[in-house]
Amino acid sequence: MATEENKNAAAGSGSQSGAKAASQPAAQQGFVYLPLIAGWLVPGAGHFLLGKWVRGSLLAAAILGMFVTGLAMHGELYTSVHNILEILCLAGDLGNGLLYVAGRIAGWGAEQVQTTVGDWGARFIVVAGLLNVIAAVDAHNLRTGRKS
Amino acid sequence: MTYFPAVLLFALFASTVFGITQRETPRAMIRYGIYCFVLFVGSAIALSWLMFFIAR
Fold first, then answer.
1. What is the ipTM of this complex?
2. pLDDT of residue A28
3. Beta bridge partners of A110
4. Chain A residues with CB inside 8 Å of B13's CB?
5. Is A148 within 8 Å of chain B by CB?
6. B14 with A127: Cβ contact below 8 A
7. A19-34: per-residue pLDDT in tens?
8. Which of A28, A118, A121, B10 sits most deeply, having the most CB atoms within 10 A of its CB?
9. How far apart are CA B29 and CA B37, in angstroms?
10. Do A131 and B17 touch (CB under 8 A)?
11. What is the pTM (predicted TM-score) of this model?
């Protein structure tokens, strides 16, 4: 008896999930973490993959603007760490994805922060990375349907 | 660059991302973005005056 009920419940939930899967758009199928990874590597790319062109463009402009402003202020790209605060700053910098890699390869940013404005610039670059992570997670939420 | 333009740029970029990522409809995004911008700039001005009076 119990087995029969379980079978019915399983069949019911199976048909429900099947109907849910069928109602999902084609964009909801495939590798679910692609917008998250693309959005982390290139600002706005996660939203572009989902066809959210305006949102993606605005996010890319804001994050790139923050990053470039930080460099223009002679901010530092963290390369080595000596204390806990620098570890946190490096983690923020890594949020910039390929921008950080390009910056390291091309030698962007100051070697060492020597002015107050340069210190602000380093913070701008860190915050650009953190904002990029937020944008990438937003793309993931759009992809999974948690956000519309 | 002086402190205030840096604050304005920081507030503009951060509130743009907050507005888009934390709300669902375009209208709510704009409203929340403006709200964040005003909070960023307003709190910077308020804290600046506070520090000015503490330093005196």
1. 0.92
2. 57
3. A76
4. 62-63, 65-66, 69, 128, 131
5. yes
6. yes
7. 444 445 545 578 999 9
8. A121
9. 12
10. yes
11. 0.83
